[in-house]
Structure formats: structure tokens, C-alpha cells
Amino acid sequence: GAARVTSTGPRSEIGRIGASLRTLQAEPPRLQQQTARVVRLCFFGGAAIFRPNLALAVILLSIAGALGTALLWPPASSLFRFGPLHPDDLMIALGPGVVMLVVLELLKPLWRRRLRS
């Protein structure tokens, strides 16, 4: 038998279906959505450091100023008997703080659910 072609490509019925499928937005997998949410919560919008908080800013600046003075001003450094600050010492001090911040930010959704119920 012979077949009669009336249209091809985007003008055919299959071509129109393909064109409409191209305009659809594919929803990302659930794991990808949850991972993106955790990253946003921890590093962009959910972390307390990135939200305007005057009390937190004053406390952080005060502590940074006091520590900077104690480490960099020789009379204060000798008073507290501080030696020079090495990179490994800094990592030992900052590492647990960063880990604790991330853990607390990840626990916030659980705490919110408990507080609501």
C-alpha cells in the first residue's frame, strides 16, 4: 500500500505534540529540591548571619574587637600571655563553630514543627 503524507515536521500532529512538550517545565526530582532547600537555608536565607539582626551584629563586632585587641595590641597580648595566632589554631577555633552553626540551622525546621504542634 501507499501512504499519503499531508504534512511533516512541526506541522504534523506528532510535530505539534513535540512542540507542546518542549514548552513544559520539567519538575526537578524531590531529592534535588530538598538538597537545594537545605543549601538555601544554611547559606543564603535561613542562616541568622544573613538576616538583619542588630543585636547579633553588635555582639559579633564587640567580640571581634575584643579578640582583635587582645591578639594584636602588644600590652593586651602580654597581659593574657597570647602567642602568635597560627592558621591551624584558627581552624581549630573556627571549625567547631561553623559545624555547630550548620547543625543548628539544619535543626530549625524540626524545632519549628514541634513548636507549632
Describe the structure.
It is a single chain. The chain is mostly helical and 117 residues long. The protein has helices at residues 13-22, 30-44, 54-72, 74-80, 87-116. It is elongated, with a radius of gyration of 29 Å.
Summary of the model, kept short:
This protein is mainly α.
Number of helices: 5
How would you classify the helix and strand content by structural class? mainly alpha
The overall average pLDDT, rounded, is 80
Radius of gyration: 29 Å
Largest sheet: none
The count of strands amounts to: 0
Head-to-tail CA distance between termini: 71 Å
Strand content: under 5%
Share of residues in helices: 55-70%
Describe the secondary structure blueprint for this structure:
Blueprint: H1 13-22, H2 30-44, H3 54-72, H4 74-80, H5 87-116
Helix pairs in contact: 3-4
Give me some keywords for this one.
single chain; 117 residues; mainly alpha
